[in-house]
Amino acid sequence: MIKELNTKRLHLRRMEISDSQSLFKIWSDPHVTEFMNITSFIHEAQAKEMIELLEELAQAGKAVRFSMIERNSKEIIGTCGFNSIDFDNAKAEIGYDIAKAYWGMGFAPEGIRALMDYAFGTLKLNRIEAKVEPANVNSIKVLQKLNFKFEGTLRQFEISKGNFIDVNMYSSLKTD
Predict the structure, then answer these.
(1) Which residues lie closer than 8 Å to 174 by C-beta, 6 or more apart?
(2) Which site in 18, 33, 96, 141 is 20 to 30 Å from 103, CA atoms measured?
(3) How, if at all, do strands 76-86 and 10-14 pair?
(4) Which residue ranges form the domains of the chain, and what is each CATH number?
(5) Would you give per-residue pLDDT tens digits along the chain (176 residues)?
(6) pTM score above 0.85
(7) Residue 33 burial by Cβ neighbours in a 10 Å radius (0-12, 13-18, 19+)
C-alpha cells in the first residue's frame, strides 16, 4: 500500500505516532468530530491508539489513512484515506477530516482528488463510496465539487454516539 501522495498544496503521508499531538488537536475539536463516528478526544493517548489501529488496518491491506500536511507550513491540517478497501469488488470508501481553521479552503477536495486518482489509476478500483450524515452540509459540498453522485439515504444505517443515524450514500465511478 502506498505511503505518500502529493498535490499542489498538500503532502499526504501515512500517519505516524509522532503525528499524535497534531491529530489530537484536530480530533478533540467538537466542530470537527460532530459528524465523525468518534466522540471528541480528551487525551492525546486516544490519538495514538487511533493511529495504531489505522496502521494495523493498512498493514492488512484493508484501509489506509494519511495525515494531510500543508506543504508551505508543514502543518498537519487533517486526515484523509480509505476507510475500507474491497479489492474483490474493486471499490473503496473514503473518509476525511480537516481542522476547522482550514475549512472552506479547498484542501479536502484536493486531498480526495489525489486519493481518487490513486484508486482508479494504480489500484484499478472501479468505485469510490462516501457515506455522509445528511446534516453534514460541508462534506456534501466537498463531494458535489468532486462530482460524486447521490445514490440515496440509508435509513438508520449505523449507530453513532449511541444513536441510530441515517447516512447518505455518494459514489464516483471510474467511468464518471
Answers:
(1) 120, 125, 126, 127
(2) 18
(3) unpaired
(4) 4-127 (3.40.630.30)
(5) 788 999 999 999 999 999 999 999 999 999 999 999 899 999 999 999 999 999 999 999 899 999 999 999 999 999 999 999 999 999 999 999 999 999 999 999 999 999 999 999 999 999 999 999 999 999 999 999 999 999 999 999 999 989 999 999 999 999 99
(6) yes
(7) middle
| Grid cell for residue 86 | 474491497
In degrees and rounded to multiples of 5, residue 40 shows phi and psi of -55, 135
Within its chain, how far is the Cα of 15 from the centroid?
Answer: 12
By DSSP bridging, strand 91-98 and strand 10-14 are: unpaired
C-alpha cell at position 20: 499524535
Nearest-CA neighbor of 169 among 152, 147, 155, 157? 152
